[in-house]
């Protein structure tokens, strides 16, 4: 299969790859202040259950180095911190400084600011040493990355042998009736909530479109294998509205 086929799609708009990265950063610059509120409103809080499920699968341990890529405002890293305790090594990496700033504010409110290593960087070229990470996570991030195969290769590079990869992402609903209901909801309701709450319809239109462009569960597992991962597999959440992919670096 051709590498990085999504790199020319910003939602349903065809763009140059570098422009896509710039546009994605623009989306998150714009939504950062309302990001957490919007997640709760759009999903009715269900994203919290999906994130909790991810953490149960990881079983975070204090001796592991956790790298949360596209970590945004910290939802995954904070859950890891809660489970693994204050001595865990946790790096939060994100392309967008505004999202990280909201995350830092949230960490300050919890008294946790110094419990994380905050890094600005691109999932496609991580500023992280090879074979230095035990657990790599990326939640609702891979869909936004311009070159998905490059990001998978980078995840493989930074993981230690024996390291584990986890991706939580919107995915594809198989059942035709449910898929139609979900499509109707996402194309009509989500951009409207985006307009009303964040005064930003376009970013939420992009969100909906980007979900449709993201590879299916099986395609993503295949691409993880191509990047070198063993035991690439997935677990559907809420009928495939989201999925958790896991892989292992032998
Ligand atoms: C939908 S948010 C997810 C944030 C968080 N992981 C969560 O689950 O709430 C997506 C994040 O991916 C980041 N992002 C987009 N492209 C990226 C890239 N190429 N490398 C690193 N982060 C990226 C965005 O800045 C944004 O913070």
SSE topology:
Blueprint lengths: L8 E2 L2 E2 L2 H15 L3 H9 L2 H13 L6 E5 L5 H10 L4 E6 L2 H14 L6 E4 L12 E7 L8 H11 E12 L5 H23 L2 H13 L3 H10 L3 E8 L4 E7 L2
Parallel strand pairs: 3-4, 3-6, 4-5, 6-7
Antiparallel strand pairs: 1-2, 7-9, 8-9
In short:
This protein is an alpha/beta fold and 250 residues long.
Q: How many strand elements? A: 9
CATH topology: Rossmann fold
Number of domains: 1
Regions with little confidence, pLDDT below 50 for 5+ residues: none
Bound molecules: S-adenosylmethionine
> What is the beta-strand fraction?
15-25%
Helix- and strand-based class? alpha/beta
Give me the CATH architecture, please.
Answer: 3-Layer(aba) Sandwich
- Strands of the biggest beta sheet: in what spatial order? 5-4-3-6-7-9-8
Q: Give me the CATH superfamily.
A: Vaccinia Virus protein VP39
**What characterizes the major β-sheet?**
7 strands, mixed
Task: Please give the radius of gyration in angstroms.
Answer: 17 Å
Mean pLDDT: 96
Query: H/E series, N to C?
Result: EEHHHEHEHEEHEHHHEE
Give the helix tally: 9
Give the CA-based shape: globular
What is the helix fraction of residues, given as a range?
40-55%
User: What is the CATH domain class?
Assistant: Alpha Beta
Termini gap? 24 Å
